[in-house]
Amino acid sequence: xxxxxxxxxxxxxxxxxxxxxxxxxxxxxxxxxxxxxxxxxxxxxxxxxxxxxxxxxxxxxxxxxxxxxxxxxxxxxxxxxxxxxxxxxxxxxxxxxxxxxxxxxxxxxxxxxxxxxxxxxxxxxxxxxxxxxxxxxxxxxxxxxxxxxxxx
Length: 152
Description:
By secondary structure, the chain is mainly β. Helix content is 9%, strand content 47%. The termini are far apart.
């Protein structure tokens, strides 16, 4: 089984490109800083981070382009994919990426202090959930995602 679950903060805005052809597909690449706790020799915890490269295709890539920004805390599920290529110097380079199957906000917009979040759990690309966040019991829906909702 190849299943990955991560929660972390974006280290930069997603880099999005579109495939060529009749039906261009969004390909978003971003890096997550994921906390890693390590026990120190003196008994305390030392916190470091792993920087995990992620790639999201199609609608998930479009969602990342539109709503994710540097510093946004997100949760991702997907699978690990390895590959290799030969760079321009003739050196073989090995890659490891998480191919995103689901992605969603992991904190509210107010908690993050950035423009990237919409509620605890929020809208998730690849699902039909809508953003939460209003204190009155109603969900706030960001502009421009009406076509993605399962109801109108």
